[in-house]
Amino acid sequence: MSQTGVVVGLAMRELWISFRLLLLLTGYVAVGAAAALLPASLPAILVRLAVGVSAAMIAGAAIAAWSLSLDRVLGRAGWLATRSISRGTILVGWFVALAAISVPGVALVGLLGWLAASTAVLSLDPVAFGAMFGAIGCGSLALLALGLLLGAILRPLAAAVSAAVAGALIIAAAWFALPRVALPVEALVQLPRLPAPISIAVQGGGASLAFAACLVLVARAALERVDL
Amino acid sequence: MPATGGASLTSSTPDALWSAPSLRVLRPSAVTCTDLRRGRELDRCSLSVPVGARLLVVSEPDTTASTLLRVLAGLSRADRGEVRIAGSTDPTATGWGRRMAYLGPESGLHSWMTPLEALHLAAWLLGLSHDERARRIDRALRWTGITPAMTERAVSRGGPELEQRTGLASVLIAEPEVLLLDEPLRAIEATERARLLRIPRRRLTILLASRDPASELGLVAHVAYLRNGRVELIAPVGGLDQAGLPLSHAGIAELAALKAAERRLRRAVPE
Q: Which ipTM was obtained for this model?
């Protein structure tokens, strides 16, 4: 097993034992279940899915921030660092562990959402719907990276609160203030009306991944400077 | 032991250097830091500690000693300056990463880990063979007094004492050349704590940061006093006895003041 694998394993077990894994997964399942079980029109289902998955992604960012910050404050990251595990490996390990929960969570919401949407009167292109949820999954990675960045520099509570606020602001700003920006969750609401949904999903997913990569790099630079 | 950095016997092949009988007599430097700066805590702090030394680090303010050890361990970053441990400036596993170990006031272990899990993980990260891993774990468990019944219990259920014993065991597994102890094992009863920290290895260099110097009696041979981020005194513990001072924060500060006055006097009186 690689050093990254060790950090991923420790992070997953920590998330499991502290119920944070359950909390995050429950958030995603609740969103999907709410969309699938409560009857509504297709536009209402899509709005419900978009708002719900955004909330779950914001919760993911807060959990990421809390987790990394707690690891630093309690000296667990330091325990690994003094055993020749680089700070970058610790960050990547946490990112992979959180992504391994968030991405299946988004996929689950997509599946439940599709079950709800496919029974509605209006028909949806399954490929476009899947592509849009793929893009939303990429967006969840960007928010996790944002949470890890804040977790690398702030104390746990401050990190979690600021990650939630920053995540909400980013989504709200892109959704309401910048209507031409193809934010995946915003595009999901407009899915039946979009002329080229797959291209918008790919564009949104790519932008999210690029944003996530930048944030991980900044988080790594920040983690290199802070006390463990 | 020089009070400031400067001449230090180091080599790019420290093992070869240290095993040479002639140089063993000269006691090469195990830890050297030169002109370390970090905010207001460290101000051009220089220190050279020979191999095998057991040095108590006391400071004014109290946090400076911990900061120095954390910088040496790579847990805190210095703004400037150089750290050289076991002859290397490279903190990675191929440099001094595996020659140095740090034990702080918190063990840094996950509370759900059992002592055995923590030790197996620590041993695995060292890349030890199966047999060597088993040998070192067994030895560390025996030294730290962790009984077989305790090894399968989560450290959180064993209380802070088990957690700190496990923390020490996970450090000893590495068989480090330099051991940095920052307020270690405070949850353990004083006599047992002293036994645990009296680690019998001749070449082992120990730097022990403490806010309660009296509790370290018998564990250290030298004492360093840092004030305003700089090393103001390095002296044998016996120097305190000779001056009729106790091994306490005030006693060490007074000895530092006496030595400073002596130096001033020597400079003022022409030879």
A: 0.84
